[in-house]
Amino acid sequence: MEKIRELRLLKKMTQEQLAEAADLSVGYISALENGKKSPSLKRLEKIAYVLGVTSASLFDEDGEPPAQCPFMKGGKWCEPTPMLDDISKEVCALMRDVPLEAKIKILNYAKDMKQLSELPPKRGRQIS
Q1: A Gene Ontology MF term for this entry (predicted)?
Q2: Beta-bridge mates of residue 76
Q3: CA distances in angstroms from 77 to 28, 68, 70, 109, 121, listed in the order given
Q4: Which of 21, 45, 85, 104 registers the highest number of CB atoms within 10 A of its CB?
Q5: pLDDT per residue over 37-75, tens digit each?
Q6: Contact at 8 Å (CB) between 7 and 51?
Q7: Is the per-residue pLDDT at 23 higher than 90?
Q8: Is CATH 1.10.10.10 the classification given to domain 2-58?
């Protein structure tokens, strides 16, 4: 997947750094970047997380820069910036010690909740 290489280089990361942060082998990262392997969803989510992007953005071919996670820098958790509101700072502090697998699940849950909150209200019967 050329997009993984592109994002990794954009982050100024080596294959070794990406592999270590995502708990994968360097050979696996190399094979992905060269199109010799296809990642499982679980591994794709790990890589996206380390790169600070969504899994979907790894397939985005429109050339737009991916949305960056405000809590990540080079695949590592960073200190909350003063510009973040108190709730965002608290989320960042809570997430720091959560294992990667749990962070991925929490992130996906948050994305689902955001999408649901943006849906228009259902029309029809209203319960009073």
Answers
A1: DNA binding
A2: 73
A3: 24, 13, 9, 19, 36
A4: 45
A5: 988 888 988 898 898 887 777 776 554 444 455 555 555
A6: yes
A7: yes
A8: no
CB of 63 within 8 A of CB of 53?
no
Res 65: pLDDT: 46
Tokens read off for 127 = 């319960």
Smallest Cα–Cα separation from 51: which of 25, 15, 96?
15
Phi, psi of 27 (to 5 degrees): -60, -40
- Per-residue pLDDT tens digits for 65-105: 444 555 555 555 555 556 667 787 787 777 777 787 787 78
C-alpha distances (whole Å) from 103 to each of 25, 34, 43, 54, 94 are 21, 28, 13, 13, 10
CA–CA gap between residue 22 and residue 27 (Å, rounded): 13
Q: Distance (Å, rounded) from C-alpha 99 to C-alpha 112?
A: 20
